[in-house]
Automatic annotation (TrEMBL), chain B:
Locations listed in the record: Cell membrane
Keyword Transmembrane helix applies: yes
Protein name: MBOAT family protein
Annotated keywords: Acyltransferase, Cell membrane, Membrane, Transferase, Transmembrane, Transmembrane helix
Keyword flag Acyltransferase: yes
Organism field: Exiguobacterium antarcticum
Membrane protein topology class: Multi-pass membrane protein
Amino acid sequence: MAQPIERKPTEVGQPSSSFERTMMWLTTISFFVILMTIGVGTILREDRGSSQLENRALAQSVEPTVQGITSGDDMVKMENYFTDQLLLRGTFVEMQAGLSKNVLRQPFRNGIYTAKDGYLIEPSQAAQPVVPDAFQQFTQDVGRPVFFALAPSKTVIAERDGIIPSYVASNAEQRYETMQAGFTKAGITSIPLDALRLSDYFKTDHHWNVDGAYQAYGEIIRTVGKIEPTLKKVEVDPESKRSSEYPYFGSLARKTTLAYASTGDMIEYYDANQFKGIDVCYDKACGQPLIDEQFIKEEGDYADRYEVFMRGNHGILSMTSKTKGPKLLVLKDSFANPVLPFLAKSANLEVVDIRYVTKDFDASEFAKQKNVDAIVFLHNANIAGLMKTYQQKL
Amino acid sequence: MLFSSTIFLFLFLPIVLLVYHLLPRVFRNGWLLVASLFFYAWGEPKFVLLMLTSILINYLFALAVHTYRTRIGVKWIMFSMIAVNLGLLGWFKYSGFFVTSLNETFQTSLFVPEVVLPIGISFFTFQAMSYVIDVYRQAGKVQKNPLDLALYIALFPQLIAGPIVRYETVADEINHRQETLPEFAQGVRRFIIGLSKKLILANGCGQVADTIFNMKDLSMGLAWIGIIAYALQIYFDFSGYSDMAIGLGLMFGFHFLENFNYPYISKSVSEFWRRWHISLGSWFRDYVYIPLGGNRVSPWKQYRNLGIVWMLTGLWHGASWTFVAWGVYYGIWIMLEKAFLGKLLARVPVFATVWTLVLVLVGWVFFRAETFPEAITYIQAMFVPDVLWDDRASYQLVQNGVILTLACFAATPIPKRIGERFVESAGKVGQTVQYGYAMVLLFLATSALVASTFNPFIYFRF
């Protein structure tokens, strides 16, 4: 039998000098003060409802119940609440990211790779997507031309450009091609967006920037215009392009934190006067702003400045003007938001974000009811998760 | 409640310490007991009753042993004590495993009880048994006050993850201990080091290990990175927890024995077990191996005793045949070392260190794997792989190479020796750096703790 060596912790003698004693006091007091400050500070501080950094609602205080206590569930909730509301939470998260980057030299943070030029890329290795039969059925039922503008995701372009390290498996491009082939097979006309470059995307966010959106607008006009001749491109004044005063740190920067996204982006948009005469209606109200600069001016590193376009996502939205262009139904997600202002200069739009409509929504019926001339799907390549929703609502 | 939780670190601990040191001495044990029961109840409210029952039963057993020490019947009291304690442990920890094994062996379909495992039951049961046995052996005095016994068993620093504090170690300190500034400061430093081990090194290595153990078709490189990461994770996790327990003990005036002593530099498996989870090894040695006859019996019986002890050691770690195999695996190597291998290894110390490390790593595969086929497949990837190296191994090396290297270095005594020499030789500068080092570690550990709960909601990827 092995004979364990039993020993007490290193004996601690009395301090040999007043300086040593002072350091002992300092250690003791610092320990207390740091722990107590964070603990008491967390309790005394007013609870926060949400976190800009984490882009989510934070846990709120718990009213204990006998059942909750005996099961232990209330303790778990209390821990979540205390941790979510912890004083300096964001600072500690940033500190840890700084340690990962600068000391542990980790090129990836929460699955995001930081390329040399500051682009944050999220490699992914997912199963090949399947385009549901509902798309083909929809194309046949709706009786109108159907188009799909499927933008390559930033990861697809990064794969093409060889930015992702060779040792990281990522099949975004393969999945993108599978998806495109699936839509073509369903009888949907593809709007080619392969000319997009990495510079057309934000460095710290998964969306494209206004230049990428404008390029996509041109391609939509070119492709849809072949069937709808009244659809014409309306130029915007390059001089009216505005830029955010504060840097923009997007969704990928939220995952890595600023340690990995030191440069940030400048979000650009065109002045609202470029879109005069377009009436935006959603949530049973018209006259809604198409460009809302309050999101540009909002303070905070992680303010969602992308909401400058129509204040973000809405289930159903219409954009009408005196344009002589056709009436289009746009089925989209947030990727489409910076494109819509341009498109609304050329056509009247009924816009549906399939994620935010009611359960019984039927896209085919909606298209007929609104008497649209054509339908345009506008997404980026990462829509495998939406396929089930489309299956139900097309 | 876990030491590595925000609610422990920023609420429970400072409040308990502050009130404890403000209270007159006469109330301190009471406060510590209340705090310990609250600590246990936080995670397992209903099992507080189980622990209190265990305490009461063993309190009565010890009184009976003390009273009837000279009677023949005392052996029956001891037998009953062991049966009751092992019965409790057996029901809560092993009943499901036992019935499942019966069903699989004899093709029966007996009802498998679904029993929730009370956290820390292996530790507090062994401590309670240690108390009664020490009273029986007169290695520690009997506690007349049940609250003092409850404090010994429920004392929160070592309640749920050890070290197993034997009664004789702290018997005197339950009622007669002195808290001093040097020991408190030492306790703070020790606690912070343990917290950092757990949150920075163990969790960092754990992510690597978890990722690799969840993969299939491992290359040789990936399999070795995975098992090294796991070996580092389990060492820093467990030794970090022991450091925190020892540090907390010092803050309250208790002196717990060391539980780890750089096990990965061992030159034999026997030495490894003198350096790994020392409190468990010494518990089995003193309460199982020696009572079975120890080394004072025939060689055959010595090997039999070793077999029993190591099978029980494996079983103690978990209710699974892979744990039993893990224990038996060590038992076999220790028997071989006792027979002849030990002498051979002593002649080649460098080889012996590498050899021992490889044996320990192979042992960890059984410890980590959930089934035998899984373990065998993993060991095949380590030694007879289809592929030597792949991109996944490159990724793990690039992404986690620094933390794995740091952890390997920290698992040796070198950093501690350098630190101690520096503090000794650099005088005031050394003491200032020691203070600053502890505070920086506290912030880094806190940041790691908070970051582990970081949960950005990125809806969509659209």
